Amino acid sequence: MCIGIPMQVLDARERRALVSGRGEQREVDTALVGDVAPGEWLLVFLDAARERIDAQRAAEVNAALDLLAGVLGGPSLFADDPGFALPSAMSVHEVAALAGAGPKPD
């Protein structure tokens, strides 16, 4: 799975940019997005900028990544009430219905 990371351009030159985001700096390929300027936000996948985004979209993606990191990195943020039932907590009939194999309506 490939996850896009919002990164802000610090310095740019032809087809390359030094970017910063989520606590790291790296050089990325900008061939797919064209010329960029310091201050712009990019969505970066595997050291290649794939999309220009605005600061609001960068904040939204970062918030989603923060939630994901919280869930994967330790105790769940939703330990008391995740808001949904995992299949392991469901009955056989509930899992079948979830999978679309439940009883057919008349």
Describe this structure as you would to a colleague.
The chain has 106 residues and is α+β, with helices and mostly antiparallel strands. It has a single domain, classed as Roll (SH3 type barrels), CATH 2.30.30.140. The protein is built from two helices and five strands. The protein has a five-stranded antiparallel sheet. The longest helix has 19 residues, at 55-73.
Give descriptors for this structure.
elongated, 106 residues, 5 strands, SH3 type barrels, alpha+beta, 5-stranded antiparallel beta sheet
Q: What's the total count of β strands?
A: 5
What count of helical segments does DSSP give?
2
The helical percent reads 10-25%
Number of domains: 1
- The chain-level structural class is alpha+beta
Q: In CATH terms, what is the architecture?
A: Roll
For the CA atoms, what is the radius of gyration? 20 Å
Characterize the overall form.
Answer: elongated
Q: What do we call the CATH topology?
A: SH3 type barrels
Q: Give the overall average pLDDT.
A: 85
Main sheet strand line-up: 3-2-1-4-5
Strand % is 25-35%
User: What pattern of helices and strands is seen along the backbone?
Assistant: EEEEEHH
Which residues sit in consecutive blocks of at least 5 with pLDDT less than 50?
none
Which CATH first-tier class would you pick?
Mainly Beta
Separation of termini? 41 Å
How would a textbook summarize the main sheet? Answer: 5 strands, antiparallel
